[in-house]
Amino acid sequence: MRGGAAIMTALWIFVAFATTAWGGNWSSGGGVAQKDANNAWFLANVDTVNYCIVRDADHVSASEELIDQMIQRAVAYWKDQFTFAQYDVYAEIQRTARQKFVHHPCPTQLDDALATMDIVFQFGVFTDNQKSYLRDPRDYIAVSVRTVYDPKQLRGKGFVYFSADSGPWQYSGEHLFNQGWSASNGGPLMHVLIHELGHVFGLPHFGGTFDVMNGGYPAFVLTDLGSKPIGPETVFNVFKPLEQFFAGVDREKIFCAPSNVQQYFKAFLQFFSLDENISCTRLRMTATGAEMHYKTSPNGPLTLGGILTFESALQYQKDEEQYVSSLGITADQQILPNPTDLMRLTGVPGPKVVSMLRSGTYRDEKTGNTRPVQLRIAPKEIRIGGLHEEKIFFDVFRFYSGGGGGPSNP
Ligand SMILES: [Zn+2]
User: Fold this and answer.
1) Does 187 lie in the same domain as 73?
2) Per-residue confidence (pLDDT) for residue 312, from 0 to 100
3) How close is the Cα of 201 to the center of ligand 1, in Å?
4) In the predicted model, is pLDDT for residue 319 greater than 90?
5) Which domain holds residue 56?
6) Cα 144 to ligand 1 centroid, rounded to whole Å
7) Which of 184, 149, 146, 154 lies closest to 61 in space, CA to CA?
8) Separation of CA 397 and ligand 1 centre (Å)
9) Label partner for 315 (CA 20 to 30 A): which of 6, 334, 379, 391?
10) How far is it, in rounded angstroms, from Cα 175 to Cα 219?
């Protein structure tokens, strides 16, 4: 936005928020008594989210243009993800990330930016107020703080703080990339933005290490693992569990035999009718199922062991739903039509993650024999089970996560 229109918009926004009190109920999630502390900042009653970006240009390697691109991509990610979120009640009003996110130039004074914008994305710069709230800003790779909340309109605003990636306010922590915000064309930046915007959209921490809403995810994507930092093309799904395995980075999984869980690996090999001397297997997903390949020595060639074919129909497993959040409300609220007293007490159930089951067959390449299999895919796990030689295998991968399991007799 430029010129007169920008000034008019800025004035309008300022007036809209001029009466809002500053400070007080700051909330960045977790352990807060305030009932609505973890609510999304915006529900579907908000059309537009106005934001600006402010950075310490000397100590933040990403340009404002790159940051803005990544903000827009992170918003687009959630727009897509929330399309697939499941709700029991008030789905329409609870669907977040539908707003238009509009980038404005930040007013020169940070306090003015905080007063006028819905979100200020701050990179390596903070006010005294914020510093006393964060204590040591370097402890955060990033943090989203909701500073104001209107319990009538169920609407908040705040800032998302990112540590600088060099200089005195660089994020602290072991083995983190230097100048991580511009690494891999903004890949780590986009992933951390996805995580923080997840909080803005009301999601708490959940899922495993590689899940975007895991508490350690921002550190994980910035950690130098001796390979290239994660790129912006690599995305994981939260509410589209099936896609996580079929279209995500996990298109193939290599399973090798760790010596301490040899017994479970044997069960795994047994299930797929593979020889016991196999050192590694590779499960590669295809559009309709998966191919199982194996190697008899670490540097040997891959041989096709068998093919998994799944029926196309997806089946929701109702007993495997998990609510990831709830919307805290009081009697003052004016957005939801008729919440029950129970909802006022416990909150309106928020989005839930649902696992999916696919049934199919496994065809052993050597003998041509087939057997029924079930594939269960949830945001946190992939499980293959089935019947083989009169044994029920609940989870042939269980050995891999070290959680016990293996075959059991009916
Ligand atoms: Zn977090």
Assistant:
1) yes
2) 55
3) 12
4) no
5) 3-239
6) 8
7) 184
8) 29
9) 391
10) 10
Distance (angstroms) between ligand 1 centre and the Cα of 235 equals: 17
Flag whether pLDDT at 242 surpasses 50: no
Give CA angle at 199 (353, 134), nearest 5°: 145
406 vs 254, 267, 272, 356, 362, CA distance in Å?
18, 6, 13, 21, 18
Q: Is residue 116 part of a domain?
A: yes
Which pLDDT score is estimated for 98? 93
pLDDT 10s digits, 190-201: 999 999 999 999
- Say how many Å lie between the CA of residue 41 and the centre of ligand 1: 15
pLDDT at 336 over 80: yes
Could you tell me if 192 and 305 lie in one domain? Answer: no
Q: Is residue 340 part of a domain?
A: no
Separation CA 316–CA 130 (nearest Å): 44
Whole-number percent of the chain with pLDDT over 90: 43
pTM value is: 0.70
CA angle at 342 for the pair 338 and 346, rounded to the nearest 5°: 110
